[in-house]
TrEMBL record:
Alphabetically ordered keywords of this record: Membrane, Signal, Transmembrane, Transmembrane helix
Region of interest called Disordered, as start-end residue ranges on this chain: 202-225
Protein name as annotated: Malectin-like domain-containing protein
Residues in the signal sequence: 1-16
UniProt key word Membrane: yes
Compositional bias segments (type: Pro residues): 206-219
Length: 305
């Protein structure tokens, strides 16, 4: 029982953390590889990058923009992203690079979404300072759409299975997840950078009856929520264990009672057999005859209170 308690309290934590960590590690790696696409960097031109062979299936691109131009004009179509005017970044930089990611068949691996399946690949849009195009491990800038939201027009969205409803899903850089409605069949909107896709609740029953909100916690409540779920898991395991114990002892008791009853029945049967009435012959017929009278008849008048 203790073993199970330990397993259940450890597993979800570790897996959530490692996928989060590897997703951020991937962002850093893809920033590096996307920047390598700038051989003759031109502002406002999309450069497709190439990924290391161990990540085949992921597509990346990079585009450099002047901050003022981004704010005044936006960018009509950066791959699937339609960037409106009014997008600001903080801290302020003179030029920035928007790195595009299409995680293709790696989406599920880096952005697991328990209970859901993706109808489109996870796309990423991340902003970095363009000050040094050979820099690695750059921190992201915080970009915000102050007017209209950034629109994402997904290509080749798989149709949602009958009876299910496709949802836009967005992950911010902390890993918190939001769901919203799909617009015009294949469009999602966002006011900030992050990773985006269209997903649908899987019809197959999820093997683990975990709470239906796989939402990783917001940064502030992170630790609290985590330890909260841990506590719940431990409480659940303990209560489950106790219930199991109760059931077991009930079964043992019942088996004991059952055996006792069986014994009693057997004894009774044996007694019945032993007490077979003696037969006496009356003429030709046989009739049962008691060997002795069990209750002596008393005459009422003899009864003296
Ligand atoms: C893929 O290869 C690159 C460069 O060879 C390496 O830095 C990176 O850690 C590898 N990534 C994965 C996920 O294996
Ligand atoms: C994605 O597909 C490529 C080939 O197109 C393959 O090399 C790679 O291993 C696949 N990735 C995953 C996570 O299955
Ligand atoms: C740009 O970044 C690279 C790698 O971090 C560093 O070696 C180089 O000195 C930086 N260049 C400038 C001009 O800061
Ligand atoms: C999710 O929604 C909350 C509240 O509406 C918002 O503060 C947060 O930025 C959203 N996150 C993403 C990734 O869209």
């Amino acid at each position: 029982m203790l073993f199970f308690v330990i397993c259940f309290s450890r597993l979800p934590d570790v897996s959530a953390q490692s996928s989060r960590g590897s997703a951020r590690g991937l962002d850093a790696l893809l920033q590096d590889y996307a920047y390598r696409a700038f051989v003759h960097p031109k502002t406002g031109v999309i450069f497709d990058g190439s990924v290391p062979s161990n990540l085949t299936g992921i597509q990346i691109a990079a585009m450099r923009l002047r901050s003022g131009s981004l704010y005044r004009k936006g960018f009509d179509m950066y791959k699937e992203f339609e960037i409106p005017e009014g997008v600001t970044e903080s801290p302020y930089v003179e030029r920035l690079v928007l790195v595009y990611q299409n995680l293709g068949n790696w989406s599920m691996l880096y952005y697991p979404l328990p209970g859901y399946s993706y109808l489109a690949p996870v796309l990423g849009l991340l902003a970095y300072d363009a000050g040094n195009l050979s820099a690695k491990n750059l921190p992201e800038l915080d970009i915000r759409a102050s007017g209209d939201p950034i629109m994402i027009e997904f290509q080749d969205v798989k149709p949602a299975p009958a009876g299910t409803m496709a949802k836009c899903v967005s992950f911010d850089l902390d890993g918190s997840v939001n769901f919203s409605n799909v617009e015009s069949g294949n469009m999602c909107s966002t006011v900030q950078q992050g990773h985006f896709s269209i997903a649908v609740e899987s019809t197959a029953p999820s093997p683990t009856p975990v709470s239906p909100s796989p939402t990783p916690p917001m940064p502030s409540g992170k630790r609290k929520k985590k330890s909260n779920t841990k506590v719940w898991i431990i409480v659940g395991s303990v209560v489950g264990g106790l219930a199991l114990l109760a059931l077991l002892s009930f079964l043992v008791l019942w088996a004991k009672k059952y055996r006792e009853r069986k014994n009693l029945q057997r004894m009774e049967k044996a007694a019945d057999v032993g007490e077979a009435l003696q037969m006496t012959s009356v003429g030709d017929a046989k009739a049962p005859a008691a060997t002795f009278t069990r209750t002596q008849p008393t005459i009422e008048t003899e009864y003296v209170p």
